[in-house]
TrEMBL record:
Pfam families: PP2C. Its EC number is 3.1.3.16. GO terms for molecular function: metal ion binding; protein serine/threonine phosphatase activity. This is protein-serine/threonine phosphatase. Residues 330-359 are annotated as: Disordered. Its cofactor is Mn(2+); Mg(2+). SMART domains: PP2Cc. InterPro entries: PP2C, PP2C_BS, PPM-type-like_dom_sf, PPM-type_phosphatase-like_dom. Transmembrane segments: none annotated. The keyword Nucleotide-binding does not apply. PROSITE patterns: PPM_1, PPM_2. It is an enzyme of class 3 (hydrolase).
Length: 359
């Protein structure tokens, strides 16, 4: 079966939560894949006025996706731009910061802990038998001080992960995306894409790849990676004459900022295991139908997985699946049940042109 199981793992890990502005449900399922490489983060109280949600679709291993789920929101929160209200810049810098943090002894050690069991064993044996120098053992984890050790020259992981993140503060929604996970807003029943799938055949992506010395073969970067942007994948980021934004593969995210309005019903963040099977509008329509009878948002996510799961191995519906569903509350009565009255609509295939793109 190669990378697939003989029977799918359909057990689901689900969670629900809320704050005064929104409620959310999330779920993940391994499916037919031999291992689970997706990860997610849900922090309805990143601070007293801000929520953070993210999905991370790993490839080549689960270490990078889990690293992003553990550390990306911390970097956003601590960045100086965040402190002055510049959410877009703090997200942009934090995406790039992930690649920096995964290098060196400390990055290697953390990836070993978060990765597969054999990597974890190696991390225990090689990464913890020495003592950090210079009092670094007392540093806070998010300070990420330099550590000396047997992997001090580690140049970063060759596995990688997409990252699609939504930060909500008041009526402002900021989405940062690198890769082909996707964020979709339902506005009066119409699917509005708030991210772009970074595939190698897109004109801007292809241009960067070729200028950086890479090539595209059968729709894949250098014949292997079917994404043009990702965190990790350091083998594609070794050109010392180019900035990080112009490497063959880059973690540089697209940033979209919009103002939410009363017509906005819910937001979906999902890995491509969902989008391989359903268009943005099809998923929005399906969710609206489920919300007529199902109030638990994680259960709606689970039903999406059941609908997408392939009946036999091979083709669409065989990937890991992770999804976060965020429903906005009525600001005049946040404790009231949320109702949806969608209007018929057509598919929106690109990010809405009225969305404000921040730098």
């Amino acid at each position: 079966m190669g990378t697939y199981l003989s029977t799918p793992k359909t057990e689901k890990a689900s969670e629900d939560g809320e704050n005064d502005k929104l409620r959310f449900g999330l779920s993940s399922m391994q499916g037919w894949r031999a291992s689970m490489e997706d990860a997610h983060a849900a922090h309805p109280y990143l601070d007293e006025s801000t929520s953070f949600f993210g999905v991370f679709d790993g490839h080549g291993g689960k270490g990078v996706s889990k690293f992003c789920a553990k550390y990306l929101h911390q970097q956003v929160l601590k960045h100086e731009a965040y402190e002055v209200g510049d959410l877009g810049t703090s997200l942009h810098k934090s995406f790039l910061r992930m690649d920096e943090m995964m290098c060196g002894q400390r990055g290697w050690r953390e990836l070993a802990i978060l990765g597969d069991k054999i990597e974890k064993l190696s991390g225990i044996l090689e990464g913890f038998i020495w003592s950090p120098k210079g009092g670094e053992a007392n540093d806070h984890v998010d300070d990420w001080a330099f550590e000396e050790g047997p992997h001090s020259n580690f140049s970063g992981p060759n596995c990688g992960s997409t990252a699609c993140v939504a930060v909500i503060r008041g009526n402002k929604l900021v989405v940062a995306n690198a890769g082909d996970s996707r964020c979709v807003l339902s506005r009066k029943g119409q699917a509005r894409n708030l991210s772009k799938d970074h595939k190698p055949d897109l004109v801007a992506e292809k241009d960067r790849i070729l200028k950086a010395g890479g090539f595209i073969q059968v729709g894949r970067v250098n014949g292997s990676l079917n994404l043009a942007r990702a965190i990790g994948d350091m083998e594609f980021k070794q050109n010392k004459f180019l900035p990080v934004e112009k490497q063959i593969v880059t973690a540089d995210p697209d940033i979209i900022s919009i103002e939410l309005c009363d017509d906005d019903e819910f937001l979906v963040l999902a890995c491509d295991g969902i989008w391989d099977c359903m268009s943005s509008q099809q998923l929005v329509d399906f969710i609206h139908g489920q919300l007529k009878t199902e109030n638990k948002l994680s259960a709606v996510c689970e039903k999406v997985f059941d609908k997408c799961l392939a009946p036999t191995v091979g083709g669409e519906g065989c990937d890991n699946m992770t999804m976060i569903l965020i429903q906005f509350k009525d600001p005049s009565n946040p404790s009231a049940p949320v109702t949806n009255q969608p209007q018929s609509s057509t598919e929106s295939s690109e990010a809405d042109t009225s969305a404000e793109k921040s730098e």
